[in-house]
Amino acid sequence: MSKSRARIVITGVGLTAPNGNNLAEFRRNLLNGVSGITSMEHRYIGAVPAGLCTYDPKIYQNKRDIRNGTRAGSIAVYCANEAMRGAGLDVNDANRARIGVYAGITEHGNVETEQEVYNLSQFDYNVDFWSHHHNPRTVANNPAGEVTLNMKITGPHVCVGAACAAGNCGMIYGAQQLMLGEVDVAIAGGVSESPRSFGIFASFRSQGALAHHEDPARASRPYDRGRNGIVISEGGCLYVLERLEDALRRGAKIYGEIAGYCMNSDASDTVLPLAERQAECFRIGIGRAGITPQDIDLVNTHATGTTVGDIQETVAMRMVYEDGGRSPFINNTKGFIGHAMGAAGALELAGNLPAFEDGMVHPCLNVDELDAECAMPNLVYGAPVRGDIRCIANNSFGMLGNNSVLIVRKYE
Which of 236, 186, 195, 229 is nearest to 43 (CA)? Predict the structure, then answer.
């Protein structure tokens, strides 16, 4: 039965980020200017700035499952369990078939595959030493599937491959499945294991897009005139989504309501973004929410710290607000945690959700000298600001021209 008119709300948040392993810690560090970027030693590359998570996987997994699974799957298991616990829900015989898992991903299984190839090289590439866990580690549904195995969920599970737009897209898919009546609870968001993959560092470095700085905590600097690339990070954020009527029936805490969304494609380049399509995505998303650009109180941007990417998104925002009128606050989270790829959008939304309650907008970090080409009204940097936040727009854009915008409003 269709539930297309249903209102979809967020009732649980489970996350791990380079600077926090739960929403309260993550939010506190964003408001207090605490970076989670450190340095890691990578085989063949050496020391690189990266965002690494410090959650304890053994809270929800045994050693065998951690060893046999993937890092992305482990992150997903942690976030899903935390989200369900925070929502006050458990998995039981009455509901396990009505829970769906929708995990946005950029890539996964690369970490383990690279390690398997390296191990094989130590045995003269004798494939008898190849891991029999390779196939379940690398199938496209792995992280979401690991969640269902861990939590004994028998409803549908899907990984949404949407590059760095995946965190938003996972939530959009989860919301749509609730509207269609396919599930009663959606565990949705995004996860990433990227820093532990040698290949992704080597690729960004060959593009000239890998950030470097003598102080790792200052390497990720979106909008700063001296920015020089991306800091690759891991992390995850999965939400519990429910239909409003179900959340109200059980007296759940509501973090926010999904009001609108859009996904579109640039169809222009594999890597370079296109401001026109980003602006179009934003306009469609707010149109579906039944509001105007002036009704948005806060935009969390995707800006990753690359020269071209940050400017193109700024151009897109200027296109949306070219008619003047009220401008929203604008902030960015990557200065604190780097670019968490498939988890980026979901984590960045989480960092701003508490603004519905505390009225605080966290700043961009590491903007010492604002690039004039990135200047926007109400860009928040240097220190948090206070405002009446009732509607948030979350931008996430990815390779191959994958764009997403998610509109979340305060539930009142």
Answer: 195
